[in-house]
Prior knowledge:
Residues 10-190 form the AIG1-type G domain. With 341 residues, the chain is an alpha/beta fold.
Amino acid sequence: WPPSDNSVGVIILGNSGAGKSFLGNVILGREAFKHQYQVDAVTIKTEYQESSYNGQTYAIYNIPGLIEAEQERIDLNKREIDVSFRQHPNAVVLYVFGANNGRIRNEDVVAFNAINTAYPLSDKSLVVVVNSVNPNRPNDYEATTRTRLSSLLKMHLPHLCFANQINQPSEKKSLREQLVQTITCAMPKIHKKVQEINLQAAEISKLTKQIAEYQKQIDQHRESYRLEVEKLKKEFEERERQQIERERQQKAEQEARERQLRAEMEAKERERAERERRQKAEQEARERQLRAEMEAKERERAERELQQRAEQDEFRRRLEKQQQEAEKERKRLEDELKRLK
């Protein structure tokens, strides 16, 4: 704890003995979760490990099985399930169904329905694993079981995986590839609790019998249930088509908004550039006018100084002439005075 911020949760659910811990170890590629064949549950607390596939980190949660004989254990397991969903609400849910001689166990359906009612599961984010299937199963087993499961769960199951019994350690590699591929194809979603898990130990036998009766009905009316499953599949495909169309339309609208935004930004940029060009032209015109005015004033000043110097020179010339004439007059008067004497 806590998991990586950008990790996707893989919450493994199912009843005790379904093989959750074993499959968790197969997915991880290592023996991280304790598992063995015994009557009592092996996993009694939520276990957590991280692993990466194609650059994406996945947080693998191994959750205790829901159904137990004592109500106290059931309530503890409810809390452990709640812990995993609160710890990692954005997740893929991997639900493990055990099989008795290839037949879906009734108690697994009871547990699934209880969890699905509390945390509504999505067909896109749900991975269903039918575990420990005989490799030599009949050719129609998978199609028949898909119809049965879809009818029992009332869901289309696009991510359904049949896990063969493992007789040799080398067979784990192909099973791991199968599980990882199925998990990575599922789409994680935020799982929100809409109510508490409602499951009482005293009611389990009754609920299990109801599922057993329902399975008998499926066996007796296979064609009608097959058509019902086909309807679920078509509804899923129609929702997918509508979702793709909505996403396409949203993408087109987003692109149109982005084009409009770019056009507005380009228009604003052109307006800004035009404003700057006009301001620069006006500034240059003002500067030219200012230079012209300064040059005119400078010419006027130079002309005034030139005129003043000319007037001063003229004044000096007249003064000098007057002084010369005065000097001549003075000499003439002196000469006249001498003659008179």
